Each structure stands twice: as structure tokens, then as C-alpha cells.
Amino acid sequence: MFPTSSSDSVSGRADEVAAGLAEVRARIAAACAAAGRDPAEVTLVAVTKTFPASDVRLLAGLGVTDVAENRDQEAGPKVAQCAGLGLTWHFVGQLQTNKARSVVSYADVVHSVDRSRLVAALSSAAARSGRRPRCLVQVALDEDEARGGIRPADVLRLADEIAGAEGLDLGGVMAVAPLGSDPRAAFTALAEIAARVRRDHPAAGVISAGMSGDLAEAIACGATHVRVGTALLGGRRAIVR
Ligand SMILES: *Cc1c(COP(=O)(O)O)cnc(C)c1O
């Protein structure tokens, strides 16, 4: 369906986003009920990559408080366009050290911390800017290095580094379930790793897991943050890099 006028297009989009959000909230509520969890324990993080700032504004108007981006080039301008909405911004993409300074300037939570050099870069950017991002250790639950993440055996060491780094708070852990296998196995492994991190760092309670396709499994396994894009905003067009 193609909108015939710009006003149709604007209200049509608002209706689409509202419907997507209602459906995602219902799925989260159902997953919490099935798991015997309080929905207040689960934060919906809207992943708005490839979608315009106008969609972020619609989401904010509907009560969404947490928004995520995965590329610094796209996130920086979008955050600026959404100033004043009181949003918490999450960075969930693979992060090069030379982008640390820019990302620290707007991100409240960085989900993709997976190596010592990145901890050092984020720490010096935070110390310089006076900002204090929460950092999650991204855990690789398979051998697919292209998606980032540190091996489970090295998570505690990196968590200690973050906790000891000037300007950074250790928030917890994050993972993306491996493609083509039961996400429950991956999320169960992540929950065990999260519990070990929490033993040494009791305040690091975040488990960022679950996306459009597997948020119920993630919630069943203890996710505190689900990162949802497609189910909220629709399919993404191919990204030109
Ligand atoms: C894009 C993205 C998501 C959202 O994925 P959907 O399947 O669209 O919900 C979640 N996490 C990360 C790290 C992403 O890059």
C-alpha cells in the first residue's frame, strides 16, 4: 500500500508504530506471565537503526524510554535530532576504538564491549568527557566472530577490567543467540555467565538478550533487556555501507 498524501503517510506510520509496539508489549507481557516474572523487570530497548528520527519520536510519544543504534555514523545525528525527549540511548553494534569518543558522547549504555583495547578507549573517552556509560560485556555464544563478543572463558576478566576502569560502570552482559540453533540453550548459557559476573559484581545485573524472533525465550532465561527492531518498526532496507 502506498500513501497518497503526506498527511496520510504520517498518520499511517504513527498507526503502524503504535500497532507494532502494542504487539511487542503484549508478547513481553505473555512471556513474563509464562515465566512467572514481573514485566517491570524487563526493559524494552527499541532498535531504531535504519529508521528515521521521526520514528524515534513516535516511539517516545508512546512511552518508549530506551532506544538503540548500532552504527556511530547513523546514531550521532539521530541522537542530536531527538534531543530533549529524555531517552536513554544504547549502543549495540560492533565498535571500533576510534569511534569510542563519539559513542561515549551520547550513549548511556554500551552493549558491545568485547575486548581490553575497547575498555581502555571507552574509559579514556569517558574520563575526558565526564560522562559515565554503563558497559555490558558482549559474550560470543558461538564461533561466529563476525558478530563480535568475547569467549565465555574470558568474560570475568573483561568484567573486572570494566569495573576497575575510570569513568565506566559495569552493567552486566549481552549476547546475540547463534543463528540456526535453539536460542534457549544459548540464553541459558548466558544466564549462567551473568550469575558468575554478579557474584563478583552484585550491581551488574543486566542481561541483554532477545530480539524480535526470540524475545520470549530470552525472557524465560532471565533477560532484563530485550532489543527489538523489526517487530516494532518493520523490515529494514539493505544498509549501504
Ligand atoms: C538489529 C539488532 C537487534 C534487533 O533485531 P531485530 O531482529 O530487528 O529485532 C538487536 N540486537 C542487535 C545487536 C542488533 O544489531
TrEMBL record:
It comes from the Bacteria. The modification N6-(pyridoxal phosphate)lysine is found at residue 49. One of its GO terms (molecular function) is pyridoxal phosphate binding. InterPro entries: Ala_racemase_N (IPR001608), PLP-binding_barrel (IPR029066), PyrdxlP_homeostasis (IPR011078). PROSITE patterns: UPF0001. The keyword Nucleotide-binding does not apply. Pfam families: Ala_racemase_N. Keywords: Pyridoxal phosphate. Its cofactor is pyridoxal 5'-phosphate. The keyword Transmembrane helix does not apply. Residues 24-236 form the Alanine racemase N-terminal domain. Belongs to the pyridoxal phosphate-binding protein YggS/PROSC family. Pyridoxal 5'-phosphate (PLP)-binding protein, which is involved in PLP homeostasis. This is Pyridoxal phosphate homeostasis protein.
